[in-house]
Amino acid sequence: QVQLVESGGGLVQAGGSLRLSCAASGRTFSAYAMGWFRQAPGKEREFVAAISSSSVMKYYADSAAGRFTISRDNAKNTVYLQMNRLKPEDTAVYYCNAHLNYNDYVVDPLRTDFGSWGQGTQVTVSS
Q: How many C-beta atoms lie closer than 10 Å to residue 41's C-beta?
């Protein structure tokens, strides 16, 4: 099992940028596909982006495509989410997820019942 710790959240004005990090420890990080999800107050947790273990494949929710970029550094056991042109509707707690099967992120992005989770980092975008 892998342990995950997110960081990099904060308060930013609309149009600004943030980079989230998720540091992993435990089992072999490079074997895991990684995903980012978010949960706004009163809403279900939703998929944001995923990256395969080797970084060859990436997948984004429509809300993130063109503004967010997921990346990873297997030497540092870390996955990143660069968020640009932030909007107030991006306000949420952001969670990273580690899972051995990348296809589970893609086939059904509504699923949240798999993998290991971090504790989350708050992102607040002011208008």
A: 7
The pLDDT tens digits of the residues spanning 6-65 come to 999 999 999 999 999 999 997 799 999 999 999 999 999 999 999 999 999 999 999 999
Task: 50-58: list long-range contacts, CB under 8 Å, 24+ apart.
Answer: 50/102, 50/105, 50/106, 51/79, 51/102, 52/102, 53/102, 54/30, 57/102
Note the pLDDT tens digit of each residue in 96-115: 999 999 999 999 888 888 89
**DSSP assignment letter at 27:** S
What token pair was written down for 107?
């086939």
- Quick check: helix, strand or coil at residue 8? coil
3-state secondary structure of 88: helix
CB burial readout 84-96, b (16+ within 10 A) else e: eebeeebbbbbbb
